[in-house]
Design brief:
Layout lengths: L6 E6 L3 H16 L4 E7 L3 H6 L14 E6 L5 H4 L5 H22 L6 E5 L6 H6 L3 E6 L3 H10 L4 H8 L20 H4 L6 H13 L3 E4 L7 H10 L4 E3 L15 H7 L6 E5 L8 H14 L2 E6 L3 E3 L5 E3 L15 H5 L3 E5 L4 H5 L4 E6 L3 H9 L4 E3 L6 H12 L2 E3 L11 H12 L5 H18 L4 H17 L1
Parallel strand pairs: 1-2, 1-4, 2-3, 4-5, 5-6, 6-7, 8-9, 8-13, 9-12, 13-14, 14-15
Antiparallel strand pairs: 10-11
Helix pairs in contact: 12-17
Bound molecules: uridine-5'-diphosphate.
Family: Belongs to the UDP-glycosyltransferase family.
Organism: Hibiscus trionum (Flower of an hour)
EC number: 2.4.1.-
Length: 472
């Protein structure tokens, strides 16, 4: 008789930073834990997701155990108006998606026993209650960020004032404190930001679930994970690092062919995630820094932006067609024998896995960070927004996997001289040798956590077991 398979539903909110780890979790539940999984995806662009390799069933499975349901995306731009943060827009979209999600669940003949949502999907947890499903939240970030975010929704206004107005570090029980410079936008705008109350609501809902999954692992964050387990009732499940596997089909692309011609660990890869942009002055400094470093580079470039009075990003140059006129005169010609500039997007996991890559200048999005660690690539941390400054601080000060710009100019510009010396330090200089050695240890630690019998592997197994018990 076939063993009972748990059926688990996953709900992914818009944005590659959420979709990629949610799909990776789905595939691991299918391939390693023999679960049946239905993934519900809320996304702006169904066509590009369907045409990508992202929805391919995991290797070795026949595809029947992984079902994907694309939910309609309601464009809420007109309703919320301009000047509303990206996060707020995702939340509003997700709130409107709950109805469609509920309809799909109610129609299912074999209903899932558990629901996993990401941090923006907590409104859907009511559907899990209605249909007697276990409920979990997948924090696609790390334990330190989660502990911080949770703590900020519980503390006294006076403590927030001390931190924001008097710039005192924010103490989080059992964890490293958060420096004022690394605080994310929600707290900085408190108490005037309406999203603070919304945040509170999300974290209350999260605390009442059957568990919090995180894209981290025990050996990477022992202190924060212990603090959470010691102080929280809700079970904590570190299941990472969940990183998208290599797609063989892109290995023969133009970028990969160029990398094939470069010596081992000689190239700095520069990318600011799926949406990060720089000002025009910063793009110019970065170009000069790359040129002056005299090192090889692969730069995924986006047209520069400036913020308008309301804080929204405006694209200065129409560069989405690949026009690179905003780069310094002659930059491309002077660096063509050792640099490749790629507009908008590169196959990042495959790039980081290539033997020629020796360093990653990154915005420290958590997926990019994990992809770098999993491939043993040391980082230059260049955080832009959201929790990226905390990630950069953790990587540089705590874990020893990156360096960070030491002297930010008063206008926030990182100078060409500093960029040049950071690139040389991470790739070639003697000073960077400890970081290069440390990242190899972390790569092994990440692989061990996910291998059979490793900490994250065992926790995923435990989750599948809990779902089976709920069935009976
Ligand atoms: N990514 C990619 N190519 C790019 C830019 C991004 O494949 O040119 C992928 C990257 O590998 C990662 C995700 O998009 O998996 C970005 O997630 P992250 O959390 O790093 O940053 P975000 O884009 O959410 O700020």
């Amino acid at each position: 008789m076939e063993a009972t398979k748990p059926h688990i539903a996953l709900l992914a909110s818009p944005g590659m930073g959420h979709l990629i780890p949610v799909l990776e979790l789905a595939k691991r539940l299918v391939s390693h834990q023999s679960s049946k999984v239905t993934v519900f995806i809320v996304a702006t662009d169904h066509a590009s997701i369907v045409s990508s390799q992202l929805l391919q069933p995991p290797a070795g499975s026949d595809g029947d155990d992984l079902l994907v349901v694309l939910l309609p995306f309601i464009d809420i731009s007109d309703m919320v108006g301009s000047g509303v943060s990206y996060v707020r827009k995702i939340e509003a979209t997700m709130l409107r998606s709950v109805l469609f999600f509920r309809i799909e669940i109610s129609k299912m003949e074999s209903r899932p026993t558990a629901l996993v949502v990401d941090m923006f999907g907590t409104d859907a947890l009511g559907v899990a209650d209605e249909f007697n499903m276990l409920k979990f939240v997948f924090v696609t970030s790390n334990a330190w960020f989660f502990a911080y975010a949770l703590h900020t929704t519980e503390i006294d206004i006076k403590e927030i004032d001390e931190h924001v107005k008097n710039r005192k570090p924010l103490k989080i029980p059992g964890c490293r404190p958060v420096m004022f410079e690394d605080t994310n936008e929600t707290l900085l705008n408190y108490p005037n930001d309406p999203s603070y109350e919304r945040f509170k609501d999300i974290f209350i809902k999260m605390s009442l679930t059957d568990g919090i999954l995180m894209n981290t692992w025990d050996e990477l964050e022992p202190t924060s994970l212990k603090a959470l387990r010691d102080t929280r009732k809700v079970p904590i499940y570190p299941i990472g690092p969940l990183v998208r596997p290599i797609e063989k089909s892109v290995l023969c692309s133009g970028i990969m062919n160029w990398l094939n011609k470069q010596p081992e660990e000689s190239v700095i890869y520069v990318s600011f995630g799926s949406g990060g942009t720089l000002s025009i002055q910063q793009v110019i400094e970065l170009s000069w820094g790359l040129e002056l470093s005299q090192q090889r580079f692969l730069w995924v470039i986006r047209p520069p932006t400036e913020k308008d009075a309301a804080g929204a990003f405006l694209t200065l140059t129409n560069g989405s067609d690949g026009n690179l006129d905003y780069l310094p005169d002659g930059f491309l010609a002077r660096t063509h024998d050792r640099g490749l500039v790629v507009p908008m997007w590169a196959p990042q996991v495959e790039v980081l896995n290539h033997p020629s890559i020796g360093g990653f200048l990154t915005h420290c999005g958590w997926n990019s960070t994990l992809e770098s660690i999993a491939n043993g690539v040391p980082m230059i941390a260049w955080p832009l927004y959201a929790e990226q400054k905390m990630n950069a601080n953790m990587l540089t000060e705590d874990i020893g996997a990156s360096i960070q710009a030491a002297a930010m100019e008063s206008d926030g510009l990182v100078t060409r001289g500093e960029i040049r010396s950071m690139i040389r330090k991470i790739l070639v200089d003697h000073e960077g040798r400890n970081i290069r050695a440390r990242i190899k240890e972390l790569k092994n630690s990440a692989a061990k956590a996910l291998a059979e019998g490793g900490s994250s592997y065992n926790i995923l197994f435990q989750l599948a077991e809990i779902c089976i018990q709920h069935l009976n």
